[in-house]
Structure formats: C-alpha cells, structure tokens
Amino acid sequence: MTVFRICFIIRLFLKYLGWGDVFRRWFLPCWVVGAAASFALPVVPHWLFWLAAFAVFAVFARRFAFAGLMLCVLAGAAYGVFRTEAALSSQWRAEAVSGVPLTVEVADMPRSDGRRVQFAAKAVDSGGRTFDLLLSDYKRREWAVGSRWRITARVHPVVGELNLRGLNREAWALSNGIGGAGTVGADRVLLHGGSGWGIAVWRSRISRNWQQADADGGLSDGIGLMRALSVGEQSALRPELWQAFRPLGLTHLVSISGLHVTMVAVMFAWLAKRLLACSPRLPARPRVWVLAAGCAGALFYALLAGFSVPTQRSVLMLAAFAWAWRRGRLSAWATWWQALAAVLLFDPLAVLGVGTWLSFGLVAALIWACSGRLHEGKRQTAVRGQWAASVLSLVLLGYLFASLPLISPLVNAVAIPWFSWVLTPLALLGSVVPFAPLQQLGAFLAEYTLRFLVWLADVSPEFAVAAAPLPLLVLAVCAALLLLLPRGLGLRPWAVLLLAGFVFYRSPGVPENEVAVTVWDAGQGLSVSVQTANHHLLFDTGTASAAQTGIVPSLNAAGVRRLDKLVLSHHDSDHDGGFRAVRNIPAGGIYAGQPEFYEGARHCAEQRWQWDGVDFEFLRPSERKNIDDNGKSCVLRVVAGGAALLVTGDLDTKGEESLVGKYGGNLYSQVLVLGHHGSNTSSSGVFLNAVSPEYAVASSGYANAYKHPTEAVQNRVRAHGIKLLRTDLSGALQFGLGRGGVKAQRLRGYKFYWQKKPFE
C-alpha cells in the first residue's frame, strides 16, 4: 500500500467521523506527536492492545474531540512502530561472527582515517539475504566504487557507546539505514570492476578531479573542504580541522545537511527568478517555475552529495514547503506541520536524527519570532532570524551536546553567508566544470578560510552545560519561546532567569567522605572519573573518537568544568588518545606512567593525598627492567569510608605479582577495574585473591576483535565469586563508595524498545 493510499484512507475515515475541519487543523500535529513519541516506548505493545485502543477511541471519536485526537496520536505511534520494526528486522541480528562469506558491492566512496579504509556496501550472505553494511579494511586496500567482491568478514550489529551524553551509534545507524558493521578479512576475490556509470562513480570522478587540481599539495586542506562541500566526502578533512569546528559551532557548515540543500535550492530559485525577469515573455505561473527550479537544485545537490538519508529528508522537506507555497492558502505553521508530517511519513526514523530536529526547530523558531511582524524589512528579518536561532540553540545545543560555543552566533552570522554564497557555489561549479583555475580559486579561498577558523578555534571559549532535569528543560524551552515573542507577554525577565537556571544548573554534589566513580563506556578503551565533594579526577581518556563523541560531552553533562588531576596510565591510544580533547578542561595537574609524552606531566610515583575525607594513593610495582608500555601503567587506589576502588590500567600479570608482593592485603578493594580490558595478560588468580573485590569491571568494546573480556578471565572472576560488570553490555557504570559500602548501577537505566544496549 502506497503512502498516497494511506493518506486517502485516513482522510475518508476522518470525513466519515465528520472531521473535515479537524483534519486540516489537528490531524497532522497529533499524528506527528504520535510518530515521534513511539520511539520513547520501552516495549512494543501486543497487537491486541493496538486493536483495543483503536476500537475504543474510534467509538468515542464522533462524540468527544479528545478521543479523536488520541486516535490520531495512536495512528502515528502505530505507524512509527510498524516502520521501525521493519527496519530492525533488516539489521544484522547475530553476534559478531568471524569468517562470514559475503558478496559485496561498494556503494559509496571509501574514506580513510589513516588507520583503515571504510566504505558502505550492499552485501549478500550465503543464504541470499541482503544487508546494508559499513565495512572497514585495516589493510587499507583500494575499493573502487561500484566494484563487486567475494570476501570474508567479521560482521556484527552496530552497537556503540552508552554514556550520559554523546553520539548514540544505534540511533545513528538506524536513522541512516545501516544494518551492520564489519571488518574485512585478508582474502578477497574481484568479481566485477568499478567502471561504469552511476551517482557514486560520478562522485568518485569529481573527487579525483579536485585532487588533481592541487599538484604541489599546498592547498590540501582547501581541496579537502571543496570535496566535502561538493560530494560530501567528509574524510577529506583532517581530524584536527573537525576538532576546530566544534568550539565555533560550525560543524553543520561542513557536513552536508538541510542547510546546504536549502541554500542551494534558494540559489537555484533566485537564478530562475532572475532569468524569468529578463525573459520577454513570462510563463502563466511564474511561482511554479521558481519553486520547481529550487526543488531541482536541491535534488541535484543531494545526488551530488551521495543522496544520503539526511539529504533525502532535506529534499522531501523542501518539496513539502514548495508544494504548500504553490497553493498559497496555508499559514506558515500549517506548512511547517505538513512538511514535518511528510518527512515522517516517508521515513519515521528521521525522529532519531539530531539534524531533523535542529532543522525543523530552527525553522519553527524563525516562524515563531517573525509572527506578527509583517512590516519589517529584509535586514530586520535577517537579524531577528539570527536572534531566534541563537536563543533556541541555547537550549537545543545545551541539552543535546552539553556544550555552548560562546561566539558561535557571531561566527555563524559571518560564516553562513560566506559558505553558502561563496564556497559552496564554487565547489559546485568546480565539480560540474572541472576548470583548473576555477578549482584552484575555490581551494585557495577554502584553504585560508580554514586557517583562519583554526586560529579562531584556539582562542574561542566553550561553556559546559550540565544535564538538567526534564521539568527544567521544558521550562527553558517555554522561556526561549517567550523571549522570541514581540512583547514577551511581560514575562521576559522571568524567561531570562529560567534560561540562566538551565545554563548554570548543577547536579547534586557528592557528600563529604564519599566518592562517586563512573567507568565511562569508552569502547575498546578506558576512562574512569572519580568525584568527591569538591574535586574531580579523570583516569585515562579513551580513544580520540570516544573522547570527542562521548566522554567530553558526558563530563560536561555531569557538571565537570575543571579537573583537579588528569591521570594518563600509559602511552597507548586507547588510554590517552583523547588527551587533546580532554585537555581543554582545565586540569590542576597531569600525572602519567610515561610523562615524557605529555608537556608538563609528572610521574605517577608512589604518593598519597586526601580530598574531602577521601584517600587517594598511587601504587607502584617493584622496579623491573625492560618492561613494555603496559607494565609502566599507573595504578590508582581510592578509599572512602572503608570502601575502595582499584584501577591498574594495562598492568600485566608480572606487575600484578609485584604489587601483591609489595602491598599484600592492602590491595583489598570492593571494586576492581580489570587490567587490560579483561585480557589474559592481566587479572591473575593470585591478584584476584589479594584484591578480593565484590565487583570486577571490564571496560571493553562491543564485539571487539580481541574478545575482551576473554573466556578465561570471565571464568576466573566467577570462580572467585566476583560479580562481573561489562561496559560493552551495560554501557557506562556508576559506583558510590562510602560508609554504607558500595552501590553499583548502570548510568542509563531506561531502555527504548529499538535499542540493543544495554543488553542486561
């Protein structure tokens, strides 16, 4: 059944109920609310519940308006659940399996981050089932777009980290149509070359043309930006550049999104309007031609950028707006609801995309702020639009990312026109017309734009926003809406106070003589934060990716604005890779097992100190010669009210034996973070006997290639009567240590029905 048939049936049903006017006014908002709210369900109700609910509301719908509205909400929720369940059924369900034979076709341009080559692929398994997979090749071989291969791969569902804030990989994969992830094995057989025609092949050729325009490599970053803006090749930009965009709030200008598609559509519509004005004979309906040109431009740009799921939604949104404006009878709000309903009808999984709500939220803020101001000029409208976007972003960015780039409104006011009307048109023109001087001009402007932004990012401050409770979040949204009204209903001072309360909110602190420990979900890495009443310590940072996408936002959301100590156990990327990202949080001191790798760091030599009635101690194994990096790991023990925590980094069994020989029973701790993520090289039986913990925590990535924690370590832990907790299954874990003993819990307890993690 097509979407049009569904709409037709719904309209006939509502007409039967006598809801002609209600359909136009209330059906779409209620249906959208239902579709969006369906993703908050913890479980999917039984089909009998749906049937009974539909029957009850349908009986009372003709007499009670509320029942009719609830029927619309229920219809939206049922549709959202139905489409989501269908998407979940097409995902890779099994646990990670080694050596799965697959036939794959490279569906998009591969991207490289220096460690691996990653590409999207259409895969067919031995049973004939098809999957959309994201594959990684750590041998960094070439994978031509459109080529077909017979490979073996280790495939698993997309399950990411689960922290207080940060990227939710499950939601990202589901909203982008990715059914699984995998690692390509060593053997591969070519079935078909990558020559031919198609969007992906066309984009690949455009990317190569851009690279050839920079013969001497002096404009490599500028060429990378042109490739990112034209064909959506985000891997063409160095990670350092992405890091610079964050404190400026400019990431949305580089990642092709609704903003880019909209700006290209506006540019095409403006060109069409100018051409029609110069034409000696106007068509009968010039508005239709202008809107059609805008939609055609949006579609062209979306295809050039790979026609990803987010760009598909952007094109659909613009088409819905254009359709409403063509009719010219609907209000701005009715048009907005129609566009949002069209996007969710086409793809309800758009609810899980942050970009969807940022795009529609900012448009809604603009409509709300400009309502009742019909006589303002274009300049006043532009200023008001920027003001509306800034006020609403205060709440959205603070809640979603736990950080506010303080100079972002000023930078965006200049950067958006520059990117939209100069760099992006040059990128498009240089892609369609590969004229070397034109491409070099675009690359030159892009290169020096990036250099200026990198400099500006180094001096730009960010403000951490703690995770506010839901009532305060709702009040902050209401306060933002009040500020955008013409007169603010006389409540603007109160609105300002509410927004200030949201921005400066701090979660309840830790009592004296107690400590709160959080083992963050750092993937195949380690990061542990320790908080007392007035001090914060961070032990390791995880990988660079984990720090940027999860740990730093979570620290911000936890209200950590300053680290009194940063401990880097040793110089391995899964322990100190996020140092560059975390160091932006002012640290009182840096201690490391290998201090020579960090400027101003001190060695974590044997020492003791006390914070707020809590004892801290660095332990050191007996001196050994010719030890590797793991053997140099810092060891930290924290004691609060008789309850203790022990973290050993990647210390090996020989180091553990040395600790046992030196400290003996003084190693006793209720919580032990297993060494080396649960590897066989750590957590010996002798060491477990000496520590005798109640809880053993394995910080490891889901379906990691090392199979941490290993079966041997798991069996060893269980044999000692220790409860094993794993971040790969539970997400981030939190412990409270004090006179009452130890309290252990998952940091995020609520689970949506479409989530796999936490598994327990």
From TrEMBL:
<dbReference type="GO" id="GO:0005886">
    <property type="term" value="C:plasma membrane"/>
</dbReference>
<dbReference type="Pfam" id="PF00753">
    <property type="entry name" value="Lactamase_B"/>
</dbReference>
<dbReference type="Pfam" id="PF03772">
    <property type="entry name" value="Competence"/>
</dbReference>
<feature type="transmembrane region" description="Helical">
    <location>
        <begin position="413"/>
        <end position="433"/>
    </location>
</feature>
<dbReference type="Pfam" id="PF13567">
    <property type="entry name" value="DUF4131"/>
</dbReference>
<protein>
    <submittedName>
        <fullName>DNA internalization-related competence protein ComEC/Rec2</fullName>
    </submittedName>
</protein>
<keyword id="KW-1133">Transmembrane helix</keyword>
<dbReference type="InterPro" id="IPR004797">
    <property type="entry name" value="Competence_ComEC/Rec2"/>
</dbReference>
<keyword id="KW-0472">Membrane</keyword>
<feature type="transmembrane region" description="Helical">
    <location>
        <begin position="26"/>
        <end position="44"/>
    </location>
</feature>
<feature type="transmembrane region" description="Helical">
    <location>
        <begin position="50"/>
        <end position="82"/>
    </location>
</feature>
<feature type="domain" description="Metallo-beta-lactamase">
    <location>
        <begin position="524"/>
        <end position="702"/>
    </location>
</feature>
<feature type="transmembrane region" description="Helical">
    <location>
        <begin position="288"/>
        <end position="309"/>
    </location>
</feature>
<dbReference type="InterPro" id="IPR004477">
    <property type="entry name" value="ComEC_N"/>
</dbReference>
<feature type="transmembrane region" description="Helical">
    <location>
        <begin position="387"/>
        <end position="407"/>
    </location>
</feature>
<dbReference type="GO" id="GO:0030420">
    <property type="term" value="P:establishment of competence for transformation"/>
</dbReference>
<dbReference type="InterPro" id="IPR035681">
    <property type="entry name" value="ComA-like_MBL"/>
</dbReference>
<keyword id="KW-1003">Cell membrane</keyword>
<feature type="transmembrane region" description="Helical">
    <location>
        <begin position="248"/>
        <end position="272"/>
    </location>
</feature>
<feature type="transmembrane region" description="Helical">
    <location>
        <begin position="357"/>
        <end position="375"/>
    </location>
</feature>
<dbReference type="InterPro" id="IPR052159">
    <property type="entry name" value="Competence_DNA_uptake"/>
</dbReference>
<keyword id="KW-0812">Transmembrane</keyword>
<feature type="transmembrane region" description="Helical">
    <location>
        <begin position="463"/>
        <end position="485"/>
    </location>
</feature>
<dbReference type="InterPro" id="IPR001279">
    <property type="entry name" value="Metallo-B-lactamas"/>
</dbReference>
<dbReference type="InterPro" id="IPR036866">
    <property type="entry name" value="RibonucZ/Hydroxyglut_hydro"/>
</dbReference>
<dbReference type="InterPro" id="IPR025405">
    <property type="entry name" value="DUF4131"/>
</dbReference>
